[in-house]
Write a structure and sequence with these properties.
By secondary structure, this protein is mainly α. Helix content is 75%, strand content 0%. It has helices spanning 2-34, 37-44, 48-55, 58-65, 83-95, 99-108, 112-125, 127-133, 140-160, 164-168, 171-187.
Length: 191
């Protein structure tokens, strides 16, 4: 009997992981509105009732499938001139092979649910960095938005659209091009 009990949570974890993998792919391919619980279940090779059992609704499934923690670094210990480089380097590492971020970006450009989720992720996680380093606290939201234009633009062209020059550009070169722009957006005096 103990062996069966031990297998249960593992099967449960594997089922949950399979559902989330299928959901990320389905939301990325079809967008939020067109993706269905049935399609996700079919992709995960399970019954649709299992998706509902684990996530309760399509909204719950979407939230779990694209749960994103940007895990932004603490910039307080860095020299002020290194902030842009640190942020770009972190985002490149984060985007490499991150299915949840790629799915969220794909859904974010095609539907309201994804766009709202993307806004929330960047508002809740990038805005605090801007507040930490911006010379004028009242400009923090604007500066975070400007930084997001660069980071999301890079992610869209490199990881979603697959624009060849953006894909083939070495990471070091991306950092060299993009870091000064983020540095200016986050720390420079108001123009």
């Amino acid at each position: 009997m103990p062996a069966r009990h031990q297998d249960g949570p593992r099967r449960s974890d594997a089922t949950r992981a399979a559902i989330l993998r299928a959901a990320r792919e389905r939301f990325a391919a079809d967008g939020y509105d067109r993706a269905t619980i049935r399609a996700v279940a079919r992709d995960a090779a399970i019954d649709p009732s299992m998706v509902m059992r684990y996530f309760g609704s399509k909204e719950g499934l979407f939230a779990a499938a694209v749960a994103v923690d940007l895990a932004l670094p603490d910039l307080s210990a860095l020299p002020r001139d290194d902030i842009g480089r640190a942020v770009v380097t972190h985002f490149l590492s984060l985007w490499e092979g991150n299915e949840a971020l790629t799915a969220l970006l794909r859904v974010g450009v095609t539907g309201q649910a994804g766009a709202e989720r993307m806004r929330g992720v960047f508002r809740d996680q990038l805005l605090p960095i801007a507040r930490q380093v911006c010379p004028d606290p009242e400009q923090s939201a604007t500066r975070a938005a400007l930084a997001a234009t660069q980071l999301l633009g890079l992610a869209l062209t490199r990881y979603v659209i697959g624009f060849p020059p953006a894909v083939s550009l070495p990471r070091e070169e991306i950092v060299a091009w993009l870091a000064p722009t983020l540095q200016r957006y986050l720390t420079a005096p108001h123009p």
